[in-house]
Amino acid sequence: MRPRPQPVLFAIDDDSGVVHALSDDLSRRFGGDFRIIGESSAAAGLATLRDLADDRVPVALLIVDHDMAEMPGVDFLARAHEMHPLATRVLLAERDYSVRSPVIQAMTLGQADYYITKPWMLEQDLYRIVSGFLAEWAKSHQTGFELFHVIGRLQDRGTYELRELLTRFSVPFAFHAAYDRRGRRLLASRGLDASRLPVMIRHDGYTMVQPTPAQVVAAVGGTTSSDVDECDLVVIGAGPAGLAAAVYAASEGLQTVVLEETVSGGQAGNSPMIRNYPGFPQGISGHELTRQACEQAWMFGAHMVFAQPTVGLECRDGEHLVRLADGQRVAARAVIIAPGIAWRRLGVPRLEALVGSGVFYGAAGSELRAMQGHEVFVVGAGNSAGQTTLHLARYARRVMMLVRGDSLERSMSDYLTREIKATANITVRLHTEVTEGHGSSHLEALTLRDRQDGRTEQVSTVALFVLIGGEPRTRWLPDTVQRRHGYILTGRDVVRAGSHPSRWPLDRAPLPLETSIPGVFAAGDARYRSIKRVASAIGEGATAVRLVHEYLAGGLPDETPPAEDDEDHAEGE
Ligand SMILES: Cc1cc2nc3c(=O)[nH]c(=O)nc-3n(C[C@H](O)[C@H](O)[C@H](O)COP(=O)(O)OP(=O)(O)OC[C@H]3O[C@@H](n4cnc5c(N)ncnc54)[C@H](O)[C@@H]3O)c2cc1C
Fold first, then answer.
1. Protein residue whose Cα sits closest to atom 12 of ligand 1
2. Which of 303, 58, 282, 306 is nearest to 171 (CA)?
3. What is the pTM of this model?
4. Which residues does the chain have with pLDDT short of 50?
5. 238 lines ligand 1 (CB under 6 A)
6. How far is the CA of 289 from the centre of ligand 1 (A)?
7. Cα–Cα distances in angstroms (integers) from residue 409 to residues 213, 248, 413, 422, 550, in the given order
8. Cα–Cα distance, 23 to 29 (Å, whole number)
9. 269 CA distance to ligand 1 middle (Å)
10. Which pLDDT value is given to residue 569?
């Protein structure tokens, strides 16, 4: 058998001095495991990459200077990536912290996965960041032990959801289409056929047909029922808000039970790349961030229960009873509700795979400037879609609004529709839906369908903003928890007067994140007036725990300023 060729770290820059320095630095640290190839001309570089592809030599990293004379770096990256689709794309650019830096646009549009600035001052810094890129590459591209075989149909929703669940639970698995040879053979080995899919086969032969989330979680060793009947705190939802609450509560000595409907991570766990979380300039996978937080909560002693929706909450005489879907009840001294929002999704698998790489759910913020000079699309017809369109029109060459219905006026405020009509570079396309996305590493085109005549058309673009609304996941809550449009009211928003049973019952005012039930707090997206960002959800989860302490202690004394004669703070001595 031919030995597996060493994977390649490929670097290219017009300046041969930079290529030599980079190749030398990379060789010293990574030369044992990788072959380092440096080039200083685009034509020669593409020819080398073609040869490597022909010889089936894997390329792990493509490090490409942004400013090459023969070809822009992002174009070189795109062509190189076509030949080596599994390679991680790194843009090399001059250190420039201004908004004009090419790195900003390339990263936002998903034309590069990471960046390195030059000159890099310290070898150790280069090694640290390149090691990070390689760890990500190895995780997604090197095969290892597979705990499960999943056999299903690629386009089948059940199969998609099962693969999603396993990925979010970090379970290694191999997928086989039911109609390919391996898939058919695996089904036959268990006496099954393709009439009921998906099928999941564990390494020890244990087989499940159309498994429920609870069966999947149990099969990988997760807990699906609570063996605790009484505790200090129940946290409902294990997204960023619930996980942060669990980490702080458990680490501060509260006996904590976390109840999660599926697996941990929430919306953030679905985000391939979160670029605006403080401290991660290259971005961080939402899955990785929440997976680590979940593990941290567990390490501090939080009791994590998965695949177990909370279906009810009762409060009597200061005791809070949380009801689980399996009929069990957990009594808690305090509760933090963090169930998030069910965002409506387009449901196009290719577009879901490109979230963060040209496909954006929610209002454009940090992405705005990167749209300079491009034609971009917005899906939605509500006020947030209108506001996003107007924002984008200040930067993009042209903004196309895609609306399924026959008018904007029906769903959008009058002042917005008038402004949209008066803006020259905005076009509104009615009766139109997005049915497909195109592009392997970043969005390149969309297929649009006219809902009146059924005709389809493919349009090129670099960005699609989806604003089709969502609903807070709070329908299961009792009426005693005050809500507005489904969002949970807290603190000063809680209505205190009136005769309704949801009226605040105490003389003291509710604490800042406290709901209309004393001792029940809300955090994250489902809270009325929340910010709807990962960092703010985490901040609210942590803050809610502090308020739980305050509630349990019957109020904390005011923070006392340092005494005047405190020698650490004395001035002028
Ligand atoms: C596609 C997309 C991309 C995004 N990208 C970014 C980004 O780049 N940067 C950023 O800052 N923000 C981003 N956001 C927003 C961010 O993900 C949310 O603000 C954040 O996840 C909110 O956290 P949360 O804990 O409040 O809710 P969620 O993340 O929604 O978590 C709620 C959890 O509660 C569980 N749950 C719901 N109901 C129940 C119940 N009855 N019982 C038990 N459990 C329940 C859910 O299963 C879920 O796990 C993005 C959102 C989306 C949809």
1. 533
2. 306
3. 0.78
4. 566-573
5. yes
6. 13
7. 42, 46, 7, 14, 48
8. 10
9. 8
10. 42
